[in-house]
Design brief:
There is one protein chain. The chain is of the alpha+beta class and about 110 residues long. Helix content is about 15%, strand content about 50%. The strands form 2 sheets. It has a 6-stranded mixed sheet with strand order 4-5-2-3-9-8. Strands 1-6-7 form a 3-stranded mixed sheet. A hairpin with a 2-residue loop joins strand 2 and strand 3. The longest helix has 14 residues. It is globular, with a radius of gyration of 13 Å.
């Protein structure tokens, strides 16, 4: 479905540990981006009825069924560099993206 690199797993694991034992990463897309759809992340304890659950080691990722087709096959990385830290998504479904990489167009 999706893959987290070791750097992403380490960062997400640290975030989830600080949030509590039932914390999970929610990954989704919404229609707010300059290129079309925007990537979104959140922390939740609650699994929705239509969520797809992906276990990546000690990290649980939730993706709602509407976002899944747009995220399927993506690789999530965490980059910590001179210009800042961010999650970087390599999405095979993106036909184009904005300059900052926060949004994409699947068409």
């Amino acid at each position: 479905m999706i893959t987290l690199t070791e750097a992403a797993k380490t960062k997400v694991s640290a975030i989830l540990t600080s949030e509590g034992p039932d914390a999970k990463l929610r990954m989704y897309v919404s229609g707010k981006g300059c290129a079309g759809l925007t990537y979104g992340f959140g922390i939740t304890d609650f699994v929705e009825e239509d969520d797809i659950t992906i276990d990546e080691g000690d990290v649980t990722v939730l993706i709602d069924s509407q976002s899944l087709p747009y995220l399927k096959g993506s690789v999530v990385d965490f980059i910590d560099g001179l210009t800042g830290s961010k999650f970087d998504i390599k999405n095979p479904n993106a036909k184009s993206a904005c300059g900052c990489g926060d949004s994409f167009n699947p068409y």
